[in-house]
């Protein structure tokens, strides 16, 4: 019988999101930006680092998350249209 297993002495995974933008509905030849990065620099918007058995041996597993702030703009026209998509038709009567 042969037993096989994977031994991870040191594992490291990195994930980054460089940018994130959400646009609203076009109004009067303008498309509003609902969500944007507040700071415009070269750093990642979201940076996630996961390590198993880090080299410094201070812990078994480590996760480090760094994020930058977002600028969120409320646009009533876009929000109302999104709500309309999920609203049940008037002729439908749902029981609780």
Question: How would you describe the overall organization of this protein?
Answer:
The chain is mostly beta strands. The chain has one domain (11-86). Helix content is 11%, strand content 32%. The strands form two sheets. It has a three-stranded antiparallel sheet with strand order 1-4-5, with no helix packed on it. Strands 2-3-6 form a three-stranded antiparallel sheet, with no helix packed on it. Strand 4 and strand 5 (61-67) form a beta hairpin. The longest helix has 11 residues, at 76-86. It is elongated, with a radius of gyration of 23 Å. The model has no long low-confidence stretch (mean pLDDT 85).
Question: Secondary-structure map with pairings?
Answer:
Elements: E1 11-17, E2 22-23, E3 33-37, E4 46-52, E5 61-67, E6 70-72, H1 76-86
Antiparallel strand pairs: 1-4, 2-3, 3-6, 4-5
Give a short summary of the structure:
By secondary structure, the protein is mainly beta. Helices cover 11% and strands 32% of the residues. It has one helix at residues 76-86; strands at residues 11-17, 22-23, 33-37, 46-52, 61-67, 70-72.
What is the total number of structural domains? 1
User: What characterizes the major β-sheet?
Assistant: 3 strands, antiparallel
Q: Total number of helical segments?
A: 1
Measured by DSSP, the beta-strand proportion falls in 25-35%
End-to-end CA span? 58 Å
Percentage of residues in helical conformation: 10-25%
Q: Classify the secondary structure makeup into a structural class.
A: mainly beta
Overall shape = elongated
Overall pLDDT score: 85
Q: How many strand segments?
A: 6
Element-by-element helix/strand order: EEEEEEH
Unreliable sequence segments: none
* Rg, Cα atoms, Å: 23 Å
- Order of strands, widest sheet: 1-4-5
């Amino acid at each position: 019988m042969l037993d096989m297993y994977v031994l991870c002495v040191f594992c490291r995974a990195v994930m980054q999101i460089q940018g994130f933008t959400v646009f609203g509905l076009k109004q009067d030849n303008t498309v509003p930006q609902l969500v944007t990065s507040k700071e415009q620099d070269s750093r990642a918007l979201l940076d996630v680092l996961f390590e198993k058995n880090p080299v410094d041996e201070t812990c078994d597993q480590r996760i480090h998350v760094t994020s930058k702030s977002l600028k969120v703009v409320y646009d009533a026209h876009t929000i109302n249209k999104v709500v309309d998509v999920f609203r049940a038709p008037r002729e439908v009567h749902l029981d609780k």
